[in-house]
Write a structure and sequence with these properties.
five-stranded mixed beta sheet; DNA-binding transcription factor activity; alpha+beta; four-stranded antiparallel beta sheet; Arc Repressor Mutant, subunit A; D-Maltodextrin-Binding Protein, domain 2; LysR_subst-bd
Length: 301
């Protein structure tokens, strides 16, 4: 009887480690929790160690599981690279491709592009995870992390996908009631809508204007980590908003919102982060090229 771990079981193991539960891993893999539990049990028997500490609510990696996870990812990376190398002659992209991005960016802009990309490459298995926090590419097993704003993390490779800015906006009735800010410092006396996108600073707006970069500390009664919520509050007249031009362009064109201090903006280009181990992947490169081509003109216009 073959007692060597199967590659499919290593993928199940990594999915459980990333999601923290058999049920979530099963949903991700398109199978049942019972099947996931069975395969983990078989893998633990083959390796002779307990990979997870199990509770009624979660599973947590054991010390041996932490060691095994790093090696399992290396094996899967090598298997994916082998598949790409063998498939290079037929120019077919195969295997899983896992991408993380923020909720609104993913839903409104990235998901439609991945739909078209997946149609062109039917042997790819695409996973798009929408999160409101920074991700660890290596630890969480993502191939690409798409985000607005230049990244500062060490040991990642950043690819510029598209130019973009965040702009200041407010509803006409708010400006009629409270007046229009004339200088950046005036924002400190206005109701500002506070939006936290992943690891973005809270309540400190740093913008680029005629004299370079400047910061202003803003406050307000309304805040959220969801762009749709904060944008609706802006439409309702609750304050001044700083949000991606991509998302504000239609409302500005319709006159439902008005630019405030139009000479000021916050650089928020779209970047794709990869790790050095993913850098030579044909499917990662093809996806990045696709996103760059399709997003060359900002979605907002």
């Amino acid at each position: 009887m073959n007692n060597e771990p199967q590659v499919a079981d290593l993928r199940v193991f990594c999915a459980v480690a990333q999601s923290g539960s058999f049920a979530a891993a099963a949903a991700r893999l398109g199978t049942s929790p019972a099947h996931v539990s069975k395969r983990i049990g078989i893998l633990e028997g083959q390796l002779g160690v307990r990979l997870f500490h199990r509770t009624t609510r979660r599973v947590q990696l054991s010390a041996e599981g932490e060691t095994a996870l790093d090696q399992a990812r290396r094996v899967l990376d090598e298997m994916d690279a082998l598949g790409e190398l063998v498939g290079a002659g037929r120019r077919e992209l195969t295997g899983p491709l896992r991408i993380a991005t923020s909720v609104r960016l993913g839903r409104e802009h990235v998901a439609p592009l991945l739909s078209a990309f997946g149609a062109r490459h039917p042997a790819l298995d695409l996973w798009l995870e929408l999160v409101d926090r920074p991700v660890d590419l290596q630890a969480e097993g993502f191939d690409i992390d798409l985000r607005m704003g230049e990244p500062a993390e060490p040991r990642v490779i950043a690819h510029l996908i598209a130019r973009n800015s965040r702009v200041l906006c407010a509803a006409p009735d708010y400006l009629a009631r409270r007046g229009t800010p004339r200088t950046l410092a005036d924002l400190a006396g206005h109701d500002c809508l506070l939006f936290r996108d992943r690891d973005r600073a809270w309540g400190n707006w740093r913008l680029l204007g005629p004299d370079g970069m400047a910061s202003v500390r803003v406050t307000g009664r309304f805040g959220s980590n969801h762009a749709d919520v904060i944008r609706q509050w802006c439409l309702d007249g609750h304050g001044v908003l700083l949000l991606a031009e991509w998302d504000m362009a239609p409302l500005l064109a319709e006159g439902r919102l008005v630019r405030v201090l139009p000479e000021w903006r916050e650089p928020a280009d779209l970047w794709a982060l990869t790790t050095s181990r993913r850098e030579q992947s044909a499917k990662v490169g093809a996806c990045l090229d696709w996103l760059k081509t399709e997003l060359r003109v900002s979605p907002g216009g």
